[in-house]
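Possible regression after last week's pipeline update?

I re-ran a chain I had predicted before the update to compare outputs. Posting the input and the new output here so someone can diff against the archived version. Not blocking, just want to make sure nothing changed silently.
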Amino acid sequence: MTKPDTTSPELDDPKTRPAVSNTEKDPDTWTTGDEPMTGAQGSYLKTLCEETGHAFDPALSKADASKLIDRLRGESDRLAGG
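New output (post-update):
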């Protein structure tokens, strides 16, 4: 049995190698997850909190804000289609 050629130029080209998404990672494994949430996260989270009746906590970390955003998106009538 032969090993696949891992030196192939096609594997070095992100346009031709098999699609492996790195856009969805577990927030608990983020190396920067303990840092304060970003401005974009805070703005979006504040809107979601207003829509869903939850209190906004500006002291959340990036990881905790991401998890709460995911949860509140499911509760938002505008986003969940409810």
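Follow-up from reviewer: compared with the archived run. The chain has four helices and no strands. Marking as no regression found.
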